[in-house]
Amino acid sequence: MITTKLALQRFEETATHYIHELDQFSLEQLRQKQSDNEWSLGQMFQHLISSALYMQLRNIDQCLMPSEDPMVPLTEKTEVGVAIFSQGSFPPIRIHVPPSAQYTPEQPESKEQLIQGLHTVIQRMKDIEPTLEKVSNQNIVTHPRFGGLSAEEWFLLVEMHYRHHLLQLDRLKQGLTREAI
Questions:
Q1: From CA 181, how far away is CA 178, in angstroms rounded?
Q2: What are the DinB-like domain coordinates in residue numbering (predicted)?
Q3: Which residues contact 42 (CB under 8 A, 6 or more apart)?
Q4: Residues 77/143, Cβ–Cβ less than 8 Å
């Protein structure tokens, strides 16, 4: 596994790349969907921001303040979780989740909302990274697909997740180009 300092550096580079990418799109383009089953670029950005703030970073916070409840079982990583962390990335495949009110991100209200959200995630990652060395890897929170993850693993997951969505960014950009032709 890479260090959290290196993961933070990679994450900042990727998140900054996303911020620069936003410069080339109008709000209309960010909201454009290629089909009913696809997210728009803006929804993809919303997903990255929300999943980091309200799932991954929140779960790090839970690892930082572990439950005193002895009834909380320690969950092992799943096979998929072990594979992802040993590879240091998600496989380069599309992961399709059917549209739902719970999972489908809202369309953005503005580009500024997305830029601010990305900056917020960057700042939270910078604030959390120095605290990770003090946390026991026994303090885990279960991921629905990957099993039990420590604070450090949740942190690494943010970087992997942002890097994985670069593939979707490129695919959605190509769809916009085709629409314009």
A1: 5
A2: 11-169
A3: 27, 30, 31, 107, 108, 114
A4: no
| Token digits of residue 98 | 């059917």
Domains identified in the chain, total number? 1
Q: Which residue has the tokens 């601010």?
A: 116
**pLDDT tens, residue by residue, 132-171:** 998 888 899 999 999 999 999 999 999 999 999 999 999 9
Rounded distance between C-alpha atoms, residue 101 and residue 121, angstroms: 23
Domain annotation covers residue 18? yes
Q: How far is CA 100 from CA 42, 77, 88, 103, in A?
A: 17, 27, 29, 5
> How many C-beta atoms surround the C-beta of residue 40 within 10 A?
21
Is 33 within the bounds of a domain? no
Cα 11 to its chain centre, rounded Å, is 10
Per-residue pLDDT of 98-125, as tens digits, reads: 666 677 899 999 999 999 999 999 999 9
- Identity at 173, one-letter amino acid code: K
**Residue in 101, 107, 96 with CA at minimum distance from that of residue 42:** 107
pTM of the model: 0.91
CB–CB of 154/54 below 8 Å? no
The neighbour count for residue 1, using CB atoms within 10 Å, is 11
Domain of residue 165: give its range: 4-22+41-63+76-91+108-179
